[in-house]
Amino acid sequence: MSWRGGYNLFAVPAMEAGLLLAMPFSRKVRAGVRGRLHEAAELSRARSRCRDDRPRVLVHCASAGELEGAVPLLEALRGRAEADIILSYYSPSARERAEGITAAAAHLYLPFDSPRRVRRLLDILEPSLILFAKHDLWPNLIWEAADRGIPTAVINGNFRPDSTRLSRWAIPFNREVLGRLSAIYAVAEDDARRFRFLAGGEVQVVSAGDTRFDRVRQRALAGREDQGALADRLAGREVAVAGSTWPEDEKRLLPAWGRICAAYPGAVLVLVPHEPTPERLRGIEQGCAEEGIRTATLAAVEEGADVPNVVVVDRVGVLA
After folding, report:
1. Residue 269: how many CA atoms within 13 Å on its side-chain side?
2. Cβ-based neighbour number of residue 208 at 10 Å
3. Are residues 292 and 146 in the same domain?
4. Is residue 143 within 8 Å of residue 114, measured between CB atoms?
């Protein structure tokens, strides 16, 4: 049996069953599944927002962070290549952010990676090019696109030397996937070397940098008003930033920050949870209260509230 056949016979059904089983316990999974309930209509809607006389580029970003980092490339594609951009994503965190990406003609959840869904996606959208940000690669989409002669590429590609992609059991499968790509644009030469090992000699692999840094520069030069207002109010105080945190991080961080505040009463921690959901914000507030630390959300501070020892960023996109 081929790797492609094994993936579709075993892995795809197992992943879909796992999502259904996880729905009662995960808000994110529920949102993702529900967001794909009308995927045929969503695909048709996305296609209708593109012009027939322009190339269509499907750009897939797993979550809000990858999407934000890809903005400079999206703007370049729209401007220089005069292409219509269709954004796809996996995580619900990207959906809200995608609404503000003016470089995209349309956006939608990428349908789950079954052969039937992938064929429908390509039949409706008819993309001229498919780009995957970083490492959220969908094997059936890559295989079917290659069968149809649609170029596919990875942008901002990287993975660590201890990545599971390089484990003995995973190498043959990853070679079957990466070897069908048209090009890989790696962040650094070390990443490019690992990609070359897996993809083989027929795939163009180059070290091209990371568009996230271009986006950071864009944001810095733009001088966003909300960041400027906060910076003005933090002048003269000791400030630390904890970015993209999870509950496990905060369990260690908040007790230590409480001790710092005892020594430096004016110190401010700007805490940016990876998922600023209402549940997470309540959990952070409770954790701070247990340590005797005053908190406020960024929205409250922007509206004039006093700056306490912890400012919790309550929306996505600020950290980037």
Report:
1. 26
2. 16
3. no
4. no
pLDDT in tens, 59-111: 999 988 888 888 998 988 888 778 899 999 998 888 888 888 888 999 999 99
Secondary structure of residue 6 in the 3-state scheme: helix
Quote the strand ranges of 110-225, DSSP E: 129-133, 152-157, 183-186, 204-207
Helices (H) and strands (E) in the chain, counts: 16, 11
| Model pLDDT, residue 169 | 87
pTM to 2 decimal places: 0.76
Contact 54, 94 (CB under 8 A): no
Which CATH number does the domain housing residue 286 bear?
A: 3.40.50.2000
Q: What is the pLDDT of residues 155-192, one digit of tens each?
A: 999 988 888 888 888 899 999 999 999 999 999 999 99
User: Distance (Å, rounded) from C-alpha 286 to C-alpha 293?
Assistant: 10
Residues whose CB is less than 8 angstroms from the CB of residue 75 and which lie 6 or more positions away in sequence, other chains included: 103
Indicate the burial class of 279 (C-beta count within 10 angstroms; 0-12, 13-18, 19 or more).
exposed
Same domain, 174 and 295: no
Helix (H) or strand (E) holding 57: strand 56-61
Same domain (yes/no): 139, 107: yes
Same domain, 263 and 284: yes
Separation between Cα atoms, residue 4 and residue 145, nearest integer Å: 14
Among residues 140, 102, 135, 94, the alpha carbon closest in space to that of 121 is found at 140
Apex CA 42: angle with CA 8 and CA 78, to 5°? 100
Whether 276 has a pLDDT exceeding 80, the answer reads yes
Q: Which residues span the domain enclosing 164?
A: 25-216
Other beta carbons less than 10 A from residue 311's beta carbon: 25
Torsion of CA 37, 41, 44, 45, to 10 degrees: -100
